[in-house]
Design brief:
The chain is α/β, with parallel strands linked by helices. It has 2 domains: about 100 residues, no CATH class; about 240 residues, no CATH class. About 40% of the residues lie in helices and about 30% in strands. The chain contains 9 helices and 22 strands. A hairpin with an 8-residue loop joins β6 and β7. About 30% of the residues are buried.
Length: about 450
């Protein structure tokens, strides 16, 4: 079998070699003979390439132009014979190379036939090839994005305990120290479960909160200064200290005697710094007159009191850059537009500023936000009190320094006639810019105690 294969290979090679020589010789000889028959002498053109000088194997030789001309002249003089021999050689070469020539012609024909459609389809084919690369790149990008999101979620889960402690107002060092201690002691999970199981501001639970902690301060609740007010009642109190709070938001709550079987705490009277008589308060927001120390203010970048229901609404001892009093309805009102020179104000705190304290829903005997520590003003970036439904005591705002104060769309009154002013903005409230519009006096009574505190 091997010998037969080798013999066939030799025969094929010999056939192709002889066919190629015969075809080449015939293709050269026929044009020269035809040119001579047409009285065109190609010898001078061909001979112009010469003389050729070379020295192979150190044997000098020289082919003169005359030699070439004489040789070609002899060959061309027999044009008819040369044409005949060249034609025979050409036919022999074609015959020997017929399979290869046929394949080549078929391939050339297929190429010519396919060329028009290839030209038509080339944009589509090019686009398909581009989309293959595009899809490959997008697949890699999608994969990297998914992996990045997974790692980001992993790191967020890992830092969740630290973020929770920072949200409670602890410094980075204290948070890391607490996490390290609980990890070494093996009680981290137990601590976390205890915190989550207890009362919290975000869940709407009453208590005394040392801003910005989300859980009530047991120490403050046990102190003598707060015990009488918060031992057995349902007060929501926020005590502000040195840490600025980015935002405090209380909305959709019932306060005071507005719900059945409720009562204001026994110590709810508030006496204004300008000598106004003591007033029972369901909502008290402001600084503190510190006996024997330096009294404090609440510094607020922006404050909004809106869509709320109060028996009385009083503002006192407050300076603001801009005050908007819009769309309030009250059973008697006294709005003193007193000019002032207070600056625009914003509250910052950088990395150590506390996050927001936000609660929605809940029933309280009283809401109280103050700064009781001598010479330490409370600082809030934005204070929002929205949809507070109160009864049994006044809503009092006292001792504040505000950038922009907005009082809008509130209802105030106890149905005792317009002669008694349930809505008062005292002369001690000043602003560089006042916007007072669409405030009306209408008869407004107290809500009936048919609501439940459940």
């Amino acid at each position: 079998m091997y010998k037969l294969f080798k013999l066939n290979t030799i025969k094929t090679f010999a056939r192709k070699l002889i066919g190629s020589i015969a075809l080449t010789t015939g293709m050269i000889g026929i044009p020269i003979s035809i040119l001579y028959l047409l009285l065109i002498n190609p010898v001078s053109l061909i001979a112009s390439i010469f003389p050729i000088v070379g020295s192979p194997f150190r044997l000098e030789f020289y082919i003169s132009q005359a030699m070439v001309q004489n040789s070609l002249a002899i060959f061309a003089s027999q044009s008819i014979l040369t044409t005949s021999i060249s034609s025979v050689l050409l036919l022999m070469g074609v015959g020997l190379l017929a399979p290869e020539l046929w394949k080549g012609l078929k391939a050339f024909g297929r190429c010519v036939k396919a060329s028009p459609m290839a030209i038509v389809r080339s944009p589509v084919n090019t686009y398909n090839k581009v989309t293959i690369w595009r899809n490959w790149v997008l697949a890699k990008v999608t994969y990297l994005n998914e992996e990045s999101a997974k790692w980001k979620m992993t790191f967020n889960i890992m830092k969740a305990p630290y973020s929770f402690l920072r949200m409670m107002g602890l410094s980075p060092q204290m948070a890391i120290g607490l996490l390290t201690a609980t990890t070494v002691a093996g009680t981290g999970v137990a601590v976390n479960e205890t915190v989550l199981a207890g009362r919290s501001f975000s869940n709407g639970d009453a208590g005394v909160y040392a801003a910005p902690l989300d859980t009530p301060s047991a120490q403050l609740e046990e102190m003598l200064a707060f015990r009488e007010e918060n031992k057995d009642d349902n007060t929501l109190r926020i005590v502000l200290g040195v840490v600025p709070v980015r935002e405090i938001k209380i909305e959709n709550v019932s306060v005071g005697t507005v719900y059945a079987n409720s009562a204001l705490p026994s110590s709810t009277a508030h006496t204004s710094a300008n000598g106004t008589a003591a007033t029972a308060t369901a909502v008290l927001i402001g600084g503190t007159v510190v006996s024997g120390g330096t009294s404090t203010y609440l510094e607020i970048g922006e404050m909004v009191f809106e869509k709320s229901r109060c028996s009385q609404l009083y503002f006192d001892n407050t300076t603001a850059h801009t005050i908007n009093v819009i769309g309030n309805a009250s059973d008697g009102q006294s709005i003193n537009v007193t000019p002032g020179t207070s600056r625009m104000r914003a509250i910052g705190g950088g990395h150590h500023q506390a996050e927001a304290m936000v609660t929605s829903g809940g029933s309280y005997d009283r809401i109280h936000i103050d700064a009781p520590t001598t010479a330490t003003n409370g600082k809030i970036g934005k204070l929002t009190l929205s949809n507070l439904y109160t009864e049994g005591g006044a809503c009092v705002f006292d001792r504040m320094k505000i950038g922009t104060l907005t009082i809008e769309l509130n209802e105030i009154g106890v149905a005792d006639g317009f002669a008694t002013k349930e809505f008062k903005i005292h002369q001690s409230v000043t602003a560089a810019n006042w916007n007072v519009s669409d405030n009306v006096e209408v008869s407004i009574g107290t809500p009936s105690e048919t609501l439940s505190n459940e």
